[in-house]
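Ticket reopened. Same input as before:
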Amino acid sequence: MFEKRFGRRTLLRGAGVLGAASMLPWPSACGDSDKDALTFFFQANPDEADARMRIIDEFVRRHPDIRVRTVLSGPDPMQQMSTFCAGGRCPDVLMAWELTYAGLADRGVLQDLNTLLARDGSFAAALHADSIASLYETFTFDGGQYAFPEQWSGNFLFYNKRLFTDAGVAPPPARWEQPWSFTEFLDTARALTKRDRSGKVTQWGFVDTWVPPYSAGLFGMNNGVPWCTPRTNPTHFNIDDEAFIEGVQFYADLAAEHHVAPTATDAQSVSTMDLFAAGKAGMAMGGHWRYQTFLRAQGLEFDITVLPAGSHRQGAQSDIGTTGLAIAASSPRKEQAWEFVKFATGPVGQSMIGQTGLFVPALTSAIHSAGFAGAHGEIGNLGVLTEGPAHSGYLPVSPAWEKINSLIDRSFGPVLRGTRPATSLRTGLARGIDQVLHHP
Amino acid sequence: MTPDRRRARAGRMFVAPNLGALAVFMLFPLGFSLYMSFQKWDLFTPPKFVGVANFRTLFTADPLFLIALRNTAVFTVGTIVPTLLVSLAAAAILNRKAKAIGIFRAIIFVPLAVSSVVMAVVWQFVFNVDDGLLNTMLGWLGLGPVPWLIDPGWAMVSLCVVSVWKSVPFATVVLLAAMQGVPETLHEAATIDGASELRRFVSITVPLIRGALSFVVIISVINAFQAFDLVYVLTGGNGGPETGTYVLGIMLFQHAFAFLDFGYASALAWVMFAILLALTVLQLRFARRMSLEI
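Engineering reply: fixed in the latest deploy. New output:
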């Protein structure tokens, strides 16, 4: 049938052709036009992703000439952004986090938005008039503005109204200016903690759904001492301050000494979030990102309240947890990116964010809007949210945060497990952080 | 062109793609990482030559290096010794002529087919303090719950347990293959001389599979030194709790991808390579001397 044999040369030629063909760019379903789309990198759970898509759809409707391609982050957005940007594939618009953005800004990855703001006078004026100063300044670093805030994600307390009534405990305070004391908080947690005959806890007084070392630091802040001095490029972390240590010890003792909160061991089999959602915890510390989960929990009647304040502080405070939107310095689509950031962090985008019930917006007009209040109809103490950003203490903004964070994680462990006192932080951790700050 | 030269040319052409891949994916990264180990580089700003500063910091000013080295040594010994003992026993059992032995051979190789990440996630449930399988079984024996992944000391034990479970199948395959090469006549002669089964195993089988044992040790040391994925999933990217499971692989990853200090991470990678090379050479020399003595 075949006149010629299938020879070695033919095989090699065929392999060569196949190899060369595989190197050619194949047309993809996205088409070439997708390459021209504005890329937007963000982290979100499925609900939040839907809300963001609504904002993107509205933006595209108003700017039909700009296409937006979304890039959803994995579990470690900082690592992902670093890899993308170092590899020359930096997304045009990036989500920025209060604790980590400085690492990218310091390396020249993020665009200084002041340069774009300077030529957009009307937007700049509107933004400054409507912004919440503490959130806006969180993204001010080394004289540049590297992101505009898009949401406040500070911490407060959710509480189970039915469990409070059952325990005969008075409802907690509703305003940041009128907080409760550490002692009152502990007494309430004690009253809410229930045990069975064998002594096993069946209902916890307090659970923490945030990151325990950061939560401990927030109790230190609520005892009158900020995490670090100054806010940006800190030269010292106040972990060696007596009042800060006292606050951290109070938080650690809730689980280790008073047994009103689960230890790391107790929280291994069931998450603290599930404990509160299932009605097995009286109070849960967390941010607004827990709201939808608790709202959907069957039979859970909850409200929110402020954090307790220690004896060294007058009013209570949350932390400036915030995310913002930044533009990559290497973006070839800066104009489109600028339009998108303006929209998402401006009045329209912020109003939409507020109406979703998934975020606390970062503009005064949006946070006090009827849409935001309507999306939080279940909450009685809405002032905890609307006044939250203005009553938030700053978190450290340092390019060396990743190194500091690993030291904090390592040193807080034994304190939170109750195997070492918080005073142990004074020597080991404080000294280690000082070393990182002075020799990054 | 003569047929010999033509054949040689064709041979070169056939190996060229592999050689090219080797150069691009092995030699270049090796050379580049050696170059980077003398630089300070964060991926974004241009590299800056710092001489041997990275190595000096590693050896004289980084207390975590010694901790990582110690933890890696403990992890290596804690993995290799039980792996060798268990896999020797498993291979000896599987080497018997028994009914359905093929099924048992297949079962013991299952962990080899499971990815480390999946394995680590499953073991996280097993190590759960309150209702994990291990503590439940300890409870049946009247023993108190062990804080497997919570306490730094126990976290390293947990890591070794999972690592042994992961390493045994490969070691068993190699040792079983070697055992099947041991002449049956030697066992028969020893049996006639009255040697017990254990005596035959220790005096005949083990000396004759020394080469395979040596290979298993070297591969296990290399794997233990490079441990990363298992630790990352089981106890987190910081090698916690505290520094309980802070091994060299975690240290390298943290410096490269969390701190973006690629120069320092490259220096650490070359130090790890030097340690592994020294250990391998020592092991080979030791194995050669032992075989000469036989």
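Chain A is about 45% helix and 15% strand. Chain A has two domains: 33-153+321-393, 155-319+400-438. Please confirm and we'll close it.
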